[in-house]
Amino acid sequence: MIRLGVNIDHVATLRQARQGIEPDPVAAAVIAELSGADGITVHLREDRRHINDRDVAILRRTIRTRMNLEMSVAAGIVAIACKIKPDQATLVPEKREEITTEGGLDVLRAEKRIKEVTAKLKRSGIIVSLFIEPDKCQIEAAKRTGATHIELHTGKFANARPKSQVERQLTLLSEAAKFAKMQGLHVNAGHGLNYWNTQLLLEKIPDVEELNIGHSIISRAVLVGLDKAVREMKEIIDRYCV
Ligand code: PXP
Question: How many CB atoms lie within 10 A of CB 83?
Fold first, then answer.
């Protein structure tokens, strides 16, 4: 089975557009789970531009599947994660000026800090996943940190044009997934996945364990409803489950 982690950050983005109380990401998490989501993903950013402290605290108590907290290695955020205890923490790079996460973690450069944070989170009983580029050196470094999972960054694949570049990115992802599995790592993937390119990805890397998908599902939900949007993505993924 390939798990679908529904990233509900952009439900909170809409709420923050008026700095009000609706739509509530907690309600969205419940609907996503009832519609077949295997997990709920949220990114508690240092600038709290969408998901906030209240959200993660209530989500922890209401999520019935799996809570995956995307987070930076900043001390304040790590302290919150250790208190909240999500099922899984995905460490991501974070820059204030970026519109969304722009690339994978440079584990080679920040290996010492990532290792410390990984150990701390693991001591709190949290599974640690590192969001990285499909690159052998980054995978080897990820393994050295003690993390048991990686999430391959699919953003370059999602943005690739023309077809030859799409093929190239798929090959990189497929080779990286195989290499990571040989290292004993669990392989997740995400970023920029939608109702078209997810099929392409799964044809090449059917043995991925979890896909984290946000923007495309929430965008579709605005037009057709969250229930239908999640079910349709789940149907696509289930076609590739062995
Ligand atoms: N995975 C990670 C690590 C991310 O940072 C994000 C964006 O928050 C996603 C998956 C989901 O990306 P998208 O919203 O493009 O589906």
Answer: 11
CATH assignment at residue 101: 3.20.20.70
Residue 60 belongs to a domain: yes
CB of 154 sitting under 6 A from ligand 1: no
Give the number of domains in the chain. Answer: 1
In this structure, is residue 23 part of a structural domain?
A: yes
Tens of pLDDT along 93-113?
998 778 888 899 999 999 999
Q: What single DSSP character describes residue 185?
A: -
CA distance 64 to 224: 24
Domain that holds residue 26: 3-237
Q: Tell me the CA distances in angstroms from 227 to 161, 220, 222, 231, 234, one per residue in order.
A: 31, 10, 11, 6, 11
The identity of residue 124, as a single letter, is S
Query: Mean of the pLDDT values across residues 13-35?
Result: 98
Q: Is 242 part of any domain?
A: no
Are 169 and 201 in contact by the 8 Å Cβ rule? The answer is no
Question: Could you tell me the two tokens for 22?
Answer: 């609706």
Ligand 1 centroid, distance to 49 Cα (angstroms): 15
Q: Which of 47, 51, 94, 101 to mutate to test the pocket of ligand 1 (most atoms within 8 A of CB)?
A: 101
**pTM beyond cutoff 0.90:** yes
